Amino acid sequence: MEMKDYIFKYELKDAWGMPLRGIVIGKDNAILFGCGTKEKNISINMDMIIPILEKYVDKLEAIDTFELPLPGVLDGFTSLISFKLNDKLYNYDFSNLAFYEDEDIDNNKELTIIFNFLLELNNELTKQNKEIEKYFVLSYDEEEDEEEIIKKKLHKRVYNKKTKQTGIIFDIIYNEELNKYVYMFEDDELSDINPYFEEDLEVIKEEDK
User: How far apart are CA 192 and CA 190, in angstroms?
Assistant: First the structure.
C-alpha cells in the first residue's frame, strides 16, 4: 500500500515478506489494507497519535533488536513501523511479537518499551475507529477475508428491509466510489440503480422459509 507523505505506517508481514495487514496514516486520511481485502479509507486524528510517537521515539532508538530475547515460538511474522517526526523518518521492525509471554515482557526493559508503545498506539487508534483492531495486529491466522465472507451470501434468500420483500441475491459487487459492497437481486431491475447494502438485508434461515 502506497501513500505519499504518510506520517505513520504499520505493516505486518509473514516470513516471506508478504504484507498481511496494516494501516497507513497521512495528514488528512488513513487507509486500512490487507491481503485478500479491499483497501478502506477512514478518518484518523493524527494530533492524538503524535504525542505517543514523541514519547517513545528516543526509547525505541536505543533498542538493539538483535539483543532482544527470543520468544518460545518463532512464528515468522514481522511488525514494521515507520513514522515521521520533525521531518525525520524512523523505521523499526520487530519479529515474533505475538508469542512473548507476559513474564518475558515484564522481565525485559526493551520488550516492555515496545509493547507499551504498541498498546498505547492500539488504544488510541481503536478508540477513534474500532475497525482498526483487525489491521493493527501482531499475527495472522489465515482467517477468511471479508470478501470470502460476503460472497457466501450469494444465492441466499433474504428479506429486503427497503422493499419489504424477499428475494435471491444473484450478485455482490464492491463499489469503489461508495467503498461498500452492493447487493443485486433477481428480477429487480432497479437494484443496479438504487443499490442495496448489507444493513438493508436479513438472511432468511431455512426454518423461517
Answer: 5
